[in-house]
Amino acid sequence: MKYRLFFPKIIFVYWLTFLSAGAELVAYYPFEGNAQDASGNGYNGSGDVEYVEGIISGSQAAYFNGSQRLELPSPFPDMPAGTLSVWIRPEEPPRSLGVIFCDSTNVDGRDFRLSLLPGLNTLRARGDKPPIPAHQWQEVSLAAVNTQEWFHVAYVFSEASQRVYINGILVNSSRLGGVNVGHHASRPTIGSNSDWARNYFFKGGMDQFRIYNRVLSAQEVSALYRSNRPTTYILATTVSENGSVGGAGNYSPGAEATVTATPDLGYLFTGWSGDASGTENPLTLVMDQDQSISPIFERDSRDFDNDGLSNYEELVIHRTAPNNADSDGDGVADAVELADQTDPNDATDYSFPQERLVNVTFDEDLTEASLELTGLVVGRVYHVAGTVDGESFFRFSDSDFTATAADMVIAQPVNVLFRSRLLLKLQAGPSIAGP
What we know:
This protein is mainly β.
């Protein structure tokens, strides 16, 4: 049993050593506080870059601030086939191109450049070699990659094909050949264009940069990725206000993380942003890279009790019941009390307005009257009674009504003894006994 546990370890170490040793490895920059070529081939870089925490725990990486680059001392040997492998963590989108590596001159047919396009959503590998026409390139979408975190890029080229791997997975391939590295720039560069044009700067981190003079297989690219990927992945959750989210932490590669968004009172969870989308809550994520997500919370604009006040207004601003149009049960809707500047949560706080005159039209038989009402408060309860010389002489049948509009015409049957002088008054509040 001990031999079975030890044997895979020997094979794994041998595999990584095989990738890193011999003439196949042209240059290797681990960026451990410097730009020295660890392959032993002497392509030591020079330049004023910074060094920060790297992809491997306890190691360092090069940091480019958007105006810095590393220059290599001499041209690489001509390589009609090869592999570039590098970990990158862009900090912000470039204005034009963010060049990762360049071996190029201002002459068509002598270009090689690996770069990011503005927006950080596309990786471009461009290269040509005479007599192939200039400006051949491959563009690979980075939509599935969190470009704010470390990710691995491997560009594999030959006279017959080009392939691009992201995090150990083949994402694009082409039969377009003719690309090569070497015999181009007098001083190849990392972090910007080569010596003919000092621009197109990269901003962010780079680590574990390797250049091979042969095509690496898919298994070898995967091994390079796995040898340097983090032992744990970070799930970061952010929320500015109006709710909370749980589930952040460190996770083993391949582990499932569950995040739950909880809105504050009066708010609704409406979706995820960042490395997640959709509205599933709780949400399960597979941790195959560092991820950062944020919940989106919006005010609850629904109106459960149809009183004209949103659930957010009732719960947060007025502290009324969103499922009851009359929170204090005094016969006056919450919206009406708020319009009259009384407390919708205090049944004793509301006093009904005084009587006022209205226009009334009777039919010929004096059995029905139509009231022309204006200036009503929607949601308020009214009742109607008639007086002559200050004495009540009739009241409308079923005269209580709730205003549904500011201006209304109410038709009601009446039981009235004709008088030469007739005065009707509209009064707010519940009906009272009458003759």
